[in-house]
Specification:
The chain is an all-alpha fold. The protein has one domain. The protein is built from 2 helices and no strands.
Length: about 110
């Protein structure tokens, strides 16, 4: 019986070694795969933050231009730019804004 155990032990050790080696290689591959995913996610997040900052800057600039232009738009200024009366009746309702927004406000007619 001891002879069978002594001849079986090197085979078991060899199998255990290869099994542990495969597990270590698999663990390292999973670790590096996770690290690559983490780095790619961080780069994408940084890119998104830069795009968001640029869009917010553009929105702020457009809002500033909108409010600057609304103070200069008059009928005389439109005539200076070459606009002409169409002869049709127009309805224009002007109410003071309750909040500053770029969305159209609902009007009660």
């Amino acid at each position: 019986m001891t002879k069978a155990v002594t001849t079986l032990l090197p085979t078991l050790y060899r199998r255990a070694f290869w099994l542990l080696l495969v597990l270590v290689i698999f663990s390292l591959a999973a670790y590096f795969s996770a690290m690559v995913g983490l780095i790619a996610s961080a780069v994408a997040h940084d890119t998104d933050l830069k795009v968001k900052a640029k869009v917010m800057t553009d929105i702020t600039t457009l809002e500033a231009n909108y409010f600057r232009l609304t103070g200069h738009l008059t009928l005389d200024y439109a005539y200076q730019l070459g606009f002409k009366d169409s002869g049709e009746t127009m309805v224009f309702v002007n109410r003071p804004a309750e909040t500053i927004t770029m969305r159209p406000a609902p009007y009660d007619f």
